[in-house]
Amino acid sequence: MLINRLLTISLGFVLGIASASAQGWYSERQLDKQVDQYSFEQAVSGYEFLVTNKKHKGPETYLKIANLYYGRSLYKKAVDWYTKAADEKPEIFLEHEIHRFSNALKFLENYELSDFWTERYNLTAKKQFPTNVRDKVQQLKDIKITKLTNSNSDILYASGFVPGSNDVLTTKFTESASYGDDKAVTNLYSFKILEGDSLSASALEPFEMNFDTQFNIGEAIITRDGKTLYFSSNVSTTNKQHKKAKKTNQYKLFQASLENNTWTNITELPFNSNRLFSSGHPTLSPNEDWMYFASDRPGGEGEMDLYRMARSAEGSFGTPENLGPKINTPFNEGFPTVINDTLYFSSNAHTNLGGIDIFYSVISPNGFSDPVNLGTPINSSADDFAFLQHPSKKIALIASNRVSDGDQIFLIEGNLNPNKCSDKIQGQVVDIETRKPIPFATVTTYSGNEPLEEVQTDSLGNFQVNKHPCAPQIFHIVAKAKSKVYLPFTADIVSEETQDTLILPLGKQEFKIYFDLNSSVITDEAKVVLDSLVVFLKESPTVKIEIRSHTDSRASNKYNIWLSNQRASKSHNYLINKGISANRLSRQGFGESQLTNDCHDDAGCSEEFHRLNRRSEFIITNE
């Protein structure tokens, strides 16, 4: 999680890994206190010791272990423990744990099961996070991404270019630090991007500051005139405050000034907190009139949010303002950077391929456009974050753990800001599954809430709209088919981006419910889906539905045919009792003949995989 990326630096996990038996930890309550004191690695070792020795609380303990591994981005281990908890007691998952399980499954590229847990989160939290994310993320062309040569494995990520140079500020574990002492765990360093037959990195050099080295230094940015440095740290500058900060482990923002080639006059920025919240990840807008940063301060949208505040030419600041629910989610957003009029940031939500992904949003007088995943190969199913683009060269840096458990810096080369522009946008509206064109659909463009133009697709689903004018601009575009069988498609389009043909895929209404083992009872969760189906059918009086019901592979084929027919009948009767005419409905039970996965007899699947097969599907048979 992004907040743990912040805390990893501020805390350094200073107690390291120790066996629970060596510490004499046999009480789960004592281990819970270790978590409260940020001794995460000792806690997870202790919990696993309790599980091994059968002194634990069952699935509740499994969830604690899973959450700790998830917080360290050890997603495979997290999935193992989330799966144990889900197999025994799935109802104990809290909303954020449902999301974490779904996100960790993406890291393993188990997108089918991830979608199941995303759907469960959406029903539980009444949100609309996307499924089928791989189909919704762009694949960038002519982009080369490689591990930066000579990138030290102790480097955490790059945080800024030194103005007017190829020097990069970065955060690194100090060579002298050892877990358990009071010395700095991380500090600022710099390296140069070396140009030759291929780009590489020079050796790291300490970034000298007149600052007590026992304090941990995080992200940093230097103003264009080279005279002011903004950075993050987890402590203040006196030992008394240091002890207090170490106890509460809050992260703060500081500034320093350059005098006689020395960074000095280090002071806290005025919007920090000693106890209540952390602030980090500072960056400046191109004209330096805004500072953007991340914080978990009260009143936000989620765990860690993005904020900005006005900055005067003299360097004074206004009041921090949250970037709002379009950017921030109930989870974590961080690592902002602003290039021209575009905000880049990292998030473990939105249309996410797994772990943490990098997104962008275009800034306009009306606010921020809907965040767009930066696409593959820049993003992967692992953690990808801390996007940093050179102000004049076609290169960028990101941090990622895609090739190992630790973060490494990767170099991106290519045209990251295409600016080919015509005065028209051409596109086609298609069926998302068959890719067949949808004729006579309506396509409308908006600027903010103001409609700009409405056109209709031709017999081949093609359309053309104006850009108003040919310049960088955000358009909100909506495509609607005549038939309510199709869901509307909406997106934010940046006019300066190259699009040979803009494809607007419309998906059909999908309705599916799940059953408990050996049961045909309509659950409360299923009733929510069926009630939405009733609304759709009443609004679309000509649509007919076939109910197809299924079982998992357990029990005999004969029994499963009977059980699936029972499920089809119960689903059918529910709709009729809600006022849907029987002549619009047909039904059939298929038993175990159409499994959605490989959970056949004796396959040893978990309960969650078996549950995916115990379903009724409601198929639209006409349009």
Short description:
The chain is of the alpha+beta class and about 625 residues long.
How would you characterize the overall build of this protein?
The chain is of the alpha+beta class and 623 residues long. The chain folds into four domains: 2-136, Tetratricopeptide repeat domain (Serine Threonine Protein Phosphatase 5, Tetratricopeptide repeat, Alpha Horseshoe), CATH 1.25.40; 153-413, 6 Propeller (Neuraminidase), CATH 2.120.10; 424-506, Sandwich (Immunoglobulin-like); 511-620, 60s Ribosomal Protein L30, Chain: A (2-Layer Sandwich). It contains twelve helices and 33 strands. Strands 2, 3, 4, 5 and 6 form a five-stranded antiparallel sheet that branches. β7 (217-222) and β8 form a beta hairpin. α4 packs antiparallel against α5 (59-71). The longest helix has 21 residues, at 557-577. The protein is globular.
Summary keywords:
623 residues; alpha+beta; Serine Threonine Protein Phosphatase 5, Tetratricopeptide repeat; Neuraminidase; Immunoglobulin-like; 5-stranded antiparallel sheet; 30% strand
